[in-house]
Amino acid sequence: xxxxxxxxxxxxxxxxxxxxxxxxxxxxxxxxxxxxxxxxxxxxxxxxxxxxxxxxxxxxxxxxxxxxxxxxxxxxxxxxxxxxxxxxxxxxxxxxxxxxxxxxxxxxxxxxxxxxxxxxxxxxxxxxxxxxxxxxxxx
Length: 139
Prior knowledge:
Elements: E1 19-22, H1 30-38, E2 42-45, H2 55-67, H3 77-93, E3 121-126, E4 131-136
Parallel strand pairs: 1-2
Antiparallel strand pairs: 3-4
């Protein structure tokens, strides 16, 4: 199993985050915002007293918990980081069945309805068989 590329959008990938959407919790200090501004991101704070404004972040956290973390026993912080790195790579690169037009957010474009090569698929287990990834077998 190969290590997925870092899924965090950063200068190493040539993509700089444009926005950081966060709530108004006091745990986010001015220094926190300054770090994000230093990379060129605009800080967008959710409106006051609107808990549903965090819907996208809450949906992501829920997805990670349901599809990954609730199925595993996490041993320590390093183990958690490794599992999350693998899951995020899988989530962004190898889930075309969940993406628009059967294309994963960071994956190559594909169309299984018109491409006859899709009959030559090979399955790889990820995180001990918790998830499966598929790729074309070389002809």
